[in-house]
Amino acid sequence: MLRNRLFTPGPTSVPEQILLEMASPIIHHRTEEFIKIAAETLENLKYIFQTKNDVFIIASSGTGAMEAAVVNLLSAGDKVAVISGGKFGERFKEIALAYKLEVIPIEVEWGKKLSPETVKEVLAKNPGIKAVFGTLCETSTATHFDVKGIAEVVAGFEDTVFVVDAVSALGAVPCLTDEWKIDVVVTGSQKAFMLPPGLAFMSMSPKAWAMAEKSTLPKFYLDLKKYKKTLAKNDFPFTIPVSLVAGLRKSLEIIKSLTMEKIWEEHRKRAEATRQAFKAAGLKLFSESPSDAVTAVVLPEGVEGDKLVKSLRTKYGMSVAGGQDKLKGKIIRISHLGWQDEFDALTAITAVGVVLRQAGCNIDMEKGLSLAKEILFTSEK
Ligand code: PMP
To answer: Domain span at residue 37?
Structure first.
């Protein structure tokens, strides 16, 4: 019997305590009992978002919150800048275009860095940009963006808000929403939150609310004003997935007891061990600015990425991600997100090494593994 091992950058593994919580009998969402669960959950969400502002829960995948950001902030014909260095930056562009907004693209070569200076130049050259959309971890290329630096730039523009897609990064890498002055942060349940897919979360700064007050784009289910009104009573405008919220309460309790600092450090260590292992084995990383949420390894010439991913799943029950769009077949992506420990990191490195050897690659995985062990186990726990 194969053991199901999830190393995809979402969905990620869900710990037993959370699974059990979600298996509790269903209660009605407008009862005192559920409102109590919701109150605790909504309060603790602020901790993982590192914000004092309200965090909204929407029953959708992460893309729902991305769309909510667009339709709640903007008005017909508004000009927006979209940073795009991969599939998910592209998605913000697609959403903005679906609502017929004027998009100024800030294109970044996939896997490359973006200097906040570039964003400053674009904003200075194109007066009237209402919002800048960016990504904290571009999952398709495993690239970390300097959201802190970009937020500092955007904060200097009084009438422009900064929206960050942190779907694959919040809870894995630092995202100091208030301190960095990020106006809107969106994320989803199936990554660092250690939950199944199905919930999206988003924070809104006062500057974002001021813009939302004037927004005229059409909206109904995603109208955050409805969510704000009910939030005051720890309630939701529509039937909320009660089981997922029960799981979320548990997940946030675990996260809070561990502390964000410790969780960020553990992600960093697993990512660093993975990066160093593959480099020592003789392979290259795809990104020049690798994220601690996920690692993308460039496959050697002649190796078919899709076959490798399939072989890991069918032979060993291990799920990793291949490349998307133009990177299809060319890279392999290993997630460090959520409920994983040092031995999981070693397992992922070992398994990918094994199938690469089976595919005929001459790599020194032993060297890589011994370096990974050093990185994972030498520092204090
Ligand atoms: N943005 C990023 C950075 C992501 O990694 C993902 C999911 N992989 C999304 C957006 C979309 O999220 P969802 O599939 O939950 O809609």
So the answer is: 16-257
SS3 letters across 177-203: CCCCCCCEEEEECCCCCCCCCCCEEEE
171: left (phi over 0), alpha (psi -120 to 50) or beta: left
pLDDT at 378: 85
Look at residues 257, 284, 319 and tell me which one is the last residue of a structural domain.
Answer: 257
92 Cα to the center of ligand 1, angstroms = 11
Enter the tokens of residue 23: 């298996």
Do 24 and 156 sit in the same domain of this protein? Answer: yes
Q: How far, in Å, is the centroid of ligand 1 from the Cα of 378?
A: 34
Q: What is the DSSP string of 75-122?
A: -TT-EEEEEESSHHHHHHHHHHHHTTPEEEEEE--TT----HHHHHHH
pLDDT band for 166, please (50, 70, 90 cuts): very high
Please work out whether the CB of residue 141 comes within 6 Å of at least one atom of ligand 1: no
pTM of the full structure: 0.97
> What average pLDDT does the segment 249-254 reach?
98
CA of 337 to the centre of ligand 1 (A): 13
CB of 11 shorter than 6 A to ligand 1: no
Atom of ligand 1 at shortest range from CA of 135: 3
Which amino acid belongs to residue 192?
Answer: A
Measured in Å, residue 63 CA sits from the centre of ligand 1 at 6
| Angle at alpha carbon of residue 82, lines to 219 and 327, rounded to 5° | 110
261-304 tens-digit pLDDT: 999 999 999 999 999 999 999 999 999 999 999 999 999 999 99
Of the candidates 240, 257, 274, which is a domain's last residue?
Answer: 257
Q: Is 63 in the pocket of ligand 1 (CB under 6 A)?
A: yes
Q: pLDDT tens digits for 10-42? A: 999 999 999 999 999 999 999 999 999 999 999
The domain that holds 60 is classified in CATH as: 3.40.640.10
- Ligand 1 pocket: which of 6, 60, 63, 324 to mutate (most atoms within 8 A of CB): 63
CATH number at residue 335: 3.90.1150.10
- Please determine, for residue 381, whether its predicted confidence score (pLDDT) is greater than 90: no
